[in-house]
Amino acid sequence: MTRSGRFIRTGARGLGTALALCALLAGCADLPFGGGSAPRKAPRPLPAPGDLGESGAIVPRSAESLAMQSYYRQVAQTLRERGLLRSDVAPRDAPFGTRQLVDDFIHIALYDEYANRGGTFVARQTASRLRRWEAPVRMTVEFGASVPMAERQTDRAHITAFAGQLSRAADHPVKVVPSGGNFNVLVVNEDERRALGPRLERLVPGIDSASVNAITELAPSTFCVVFAFSEGSAPEYSRAVAVIRAEHPEMLRLSCIHEELAQGLGLANDYPQARPSIFNDDEEFALLTRHDELLLRILYDPRLRPGMTEAEARPIVETIATELMGPDS
Q1: E strand segments, the chain
Q2: Can you give the pLDDT at residue 13?
Q3: Helices 63-81 and 250-263, axial angle in degrees (round to 10)
Q4: Which of 229, 277, 225 is nearest to 256 (CA)?
Q5: Is residue 120 within 8 Å of 210, Cβ to Cβ?
Q6: Chain centroid, CA 160 distance in Å
Q7: I need a labelling partner for 94 at 20 to 30 A (CA). Which of 113, 142, 152, 283 fits?
Q8: Residue 140 near residue 184, CB atoms below 8 Å
């Protein structure tokens, strides 16, 4: 059976920003990936993340991976200097009301950011149907062999804590399990990600080649990515895979964890008017905000059903949002 992959996130925290910053960062043009246009070397045959034990040996990283680590550090520093990647989740300078919450939900949950065109995912806003998990979400965290043990411990702690936050916000079972999960979070460096094809085929039997290629050929300007999969045309998700670059500094890695894991629950699109939110491309907020938690609560409200169109969902969303925000908001 072929799995239908819904490309719910380019993971491009900073897709536009990173490209603009490239000209501002010293040495950017000299990086091995040449701004994304240089030919790439064939991936080294590294062990797949799922085949590694926690006591596995740390393997050396390539010069390209080290250069990318330096680049992403510069990007993160510049973003912070510009007042972006904020960690305040209920900012007073970004109030929102019921009408905005409804509008944001409709654009984020009922539109897709990408479409599959001839086996390639292209940026195109298209109307969709409500999709979410009906089964409990069980996240399994895997690390590439090059990821230091201290970083593994930090990332695992962040992901475990965030799974609990997602579960409380959505009122849906979400937790981290040691193995056998249906939502795999892969933290890998450049070489390991390029070699992920066989691992992805084991994690998602029948995965389409467009989904595999989108992950293994990820452009440097794309910080992280998540795919959610359903059986055929079913609106309920059955599997998901998120890929986080191990080269990121901690805050950028944490922002990827928040955005990709939250979007993997069904908040598929980015909407530039959403604020305060991580579901846009302006990089203002790094962490899931109170606004975003309310979006998750709406998405998993039992009055909504997977497969609903905007016309079917909107009046119900308006009722739920009014209950959450109060009649005078």
Answers
A1: 3-9, 111-117, 120-127, 132-133, 137-143, 174-176, 183-188, 224-231, 236-245
A2: 53
A3: 90
A4: 225
A5: yes
A6: 16
A7: 113
A8: yes
